[in-house]
Write a structure and sequence with these properties.
alpha/beta; 5 helices
C-alpha cells in the first residue's frame, strides 16, 4: 500500500473529510480493504462482517470493525507479530489487571526485542510492558488463509478453560 495512504490511515486522517461550507471535519466510515503485499496481510474494515473482495496472495486475512482496530492490526503485522498471540496476551493482561467484567480497551502500541508495550484504556500514561519472552512462549498457530475476526471474543473463547 502506498506510504502516504498508510500514514493517513494511521494518523486517523484517511476517513476524515472537511466540509467546504463550515470547515468542520466529518468521519466517513465505509467498508475498506487494506492490503500489504510486502508483509502479506489483508485487513477488511467491515462494520457488519460483509467482505467485498479477497486477495488470494495474502497469508493473513482479518476482519476489523473499527478504525482503531484497523490501526492496531497494521502495527501488529508491520512488526511481523502474530495478532492471535497479541490478542491472547491482551486478554490475559485484562484478567491480570482485574478487568474481567469491565469494558476496557487494551491496545498494542509497540514491540522491540525485549518488550511488547500495551496502552490501557486510552491513557498513554498507563502503559504495560510485557516481556517478549512471554509472547514467544505462546503456542504457535501458523499462518491462516481463512478470513478471521481475531479480537477479545476470539481470545476469550481460546482461553475459556484457563
Amino acid at each position: 500500500i502506498e506510504k502516504d495512504i498508510k500514514t493517513s490511515i494511521c494518523n486517523d486522517e484517511y476517513f476524515k473529510q472537511k466540509c467546504d461550507k463550515c470547515s468542520h471535519y466529518v468521519k466517513f466510515l465505509y467498508p475498506f480493504i487494506y492490503f500489504d503485499a510486502n508483509k502479506s496481510f489483508e485487513l477488511f474494515l467491515s462494520y457488519d462482517g460483509v467482505i467485498l473482495d479477497v486477495n488470494k496472495e495474502a497469508k493473513n486475512k482479518r476482519i476489523v470493525k473499527s478504525i482503531e482496530e484497523l490501526n492496531e492490526k497494521i502495527r501488529i503485522f508491520e512488526c511481523e507479530l502474530d495478532d492471535r498471540k497479541i490478542e491472547l496476551l491482551k486478554y490475559r493482561l485484562c484478567k491480570q489487571l482485574g478487568y474481567n467484567n469491565v469494558v476496557i480497551r487494551i491496545e498494542f502500541i509497540s514491540y522491540d526485542k525485549d518488550y511488547i508495550v500495551f496502552k490501557i484504556d486510552e491513557e498513554y500514561n498507563n502503559l504495560k510492558m510485557i516481556p517478549t519472552s512471554v509472547y514467544n512462549n505462546i503456542e504457535e498457530y501458523g499462518s491462516s488463509t481463512s478470513i478471521l475476526e481475531i479480537n477479545k471474543d476470539w481470545a476469550k473463547e481460546k482461553l475459556k478453560d484457563e
